[in-house]
Amino acid sequence: MTCDIILVRHAESVPPSPGEPDDPERPLTSAGVAAAELLARELAAMNPTAVVSSPYRRAVATVAPAARRAGLEVTTHWELREWDSGLEPTPDYAVHYERSWADPDFARPGGESLRRLTARAMAAVDRLAEQHAGGVVLVGSHGTFVSRLLAGLRPGIDWPFSRDMPMPAVHRLCWPRQS
């Protein structure tokens, strides 16, 4: 039995502070809150049977309005969190991310390689699809998580795709993937 997985990259959030770790409590900006509210109607119209999210505040806040419209609770799953790049926020992050995309096995000390993130993302969605077989699951997460999941499914998902993904972004998948 299949499951529709609706990947939702979070709306615009307050930028991370250079020199500090990425804060899981960073909220959406006012524009991000407005975008999440606008997106709620579209997401609720997909008739979700479950709404799950990364525990990071910005991801939960993006899918929460749709969950309310659908009469569902948001449950959080640690494995849906953002990529642990091993970098503190820095203005030149793009150079570092590009290097990781060029070599998905590269991991900074204490960080996660993009290949491991892809495996984590695929396994997390496999579990969700099994738990919610026949349903429609809204999955609130992050740009790199969504990009690496998509990269595990189809060619052509690369650093420019990830870098340029809008906030919010929605990708609908039928899981397990049909051949």
Automatic annotation (TrEMBL):
Record GO terms (molecular function): phosphatase activity
Top-rank lineage group of the source organism: Bacteria
PANTHER family named among the record's database cross-references: BROAD-SPECIFICITY PHOSPHATASE YOR283W-RELATED
SMART domains, sorted: PGAM
CDD domains (UniProt xref): HP_PGM_like (cd07067)
Phylogenetic classification of the source organism: Bacteria, Bacillati, Actinomycetota, Actinomycetes, Pseudonocardiales
Name listed for the protein in its UniProt record: Phosphoglycerate mutase
Parts of the chain that traverse the membrane: none
SUPFAM superfamilies: Phosphoglycerate mutase-like
